[in-house]
């Protein structure tokens, strides 16, 4: 078992990010067995769940004339527009059926505010609205974080960089992540994580 100050954070292993889903990440389902095995090493297990209202502003469907994967300007900065995905209560928003969710101490949902997207498990995309995860980790004395899940270049990256900036010791296990890789986003994410001091294992 890992030390009691260690937590594993499993990012967005949901049907919509797996093959057949609305925002499928290639091979997204292949990481599930390895994540299940990893979770059993930790006494603290946290899952994140992308959880959008049906009219979420990150959906291209809410922007006349714009298409999925195009960039738009939000009050908080540039935002990629996505196909409708992880709509609250739908099968697409559910965890992959093979993921061992019983081991989770906490499921933290994000992206539920219609006007702000949230890639990071710590802060929404305005980079100021907190999700509450920092407080949860600090009050439990969890200082060392291992992150895995989907997608490497968006939610894993933003979560890992925010955690490192907040002073947590962060490792991302690359083999247990898969990327969307939009216009070089995977290379940019790898660079951002390394710059922030995240260990990529
Ligand atoms: C994600 C795009 C939109 C992710 C979530 O989990 O990486 N990417 N919503
Ligand atoms: Zn989303």
From TrEMBL:
Keywords: Hydrolase, Metal-binding, Pyridine nucleotide biosynthesis. The keyword Hydrolase applies. GO terms for biological process: pyridine nucleotide biosynthetic process. Residues 7-200 form the Isochorismatase-like domain. GO terms for molecular function: metal ion binding; nicotinamidase activity. Gene3D superfamilies: Isochorismatase-like. The keyword Hydrolase applies. CDD domains: nicotinamidase (cd01011). Its EC number is 3.5.1.19. Pathway: Cofactor biosynthesis; nicotinate biosynthesis; nicotinate from nicotinamide: step 1/1. Belongs to the isochorismatase family. PANTHER family: LD05707P, PYRAZINAMIDASE/NICOTINAMIDASE. NCBIfam families: PRK11609.1. This is Nicotinamidase.
């Amino acid at each position: 078992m890992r030390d009691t100050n260690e937590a594993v954070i499993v990012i967005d292993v949901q049907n919509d990010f797996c093959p057949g889903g609305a925002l499928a990440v290639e091979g997204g389902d292949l990481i599930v067995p390895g994540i299940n095995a990893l979770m059993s090493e930790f006494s603290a297990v946290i899952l994140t769940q992308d959880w959008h209202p049906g009219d979420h502003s990150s959906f291209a469907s809410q922007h006349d004339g714009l298409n999925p994967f195009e960039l738009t300007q939000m009050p908080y900065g540039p935002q990629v527009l996505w196909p409708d995905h992880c709509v609250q209560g739908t099968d697409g928003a559910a965890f992959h059926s093979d993921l061992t969710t019983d081991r989770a101490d906490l499921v933290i949902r994000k992206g539920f505010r219609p006007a702000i997207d949230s890639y990071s498990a710590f802060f929404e995309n305005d980079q100021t609205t907190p999700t509450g995860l920092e407080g949860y980790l600090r009050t439990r004395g969890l200082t060392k974080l291992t992150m895995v899940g989907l997608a490497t270049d968006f939610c894993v990256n933003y979560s890992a960089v925010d955690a490192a900036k907040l002073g947590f010791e962060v490792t991302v296990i690359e083999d247990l992540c898969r990327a969307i890789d939009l216009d070089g986003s995977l290379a940019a994410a790898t660079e951002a994580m390394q710059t922030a001091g995240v260990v990529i294992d």
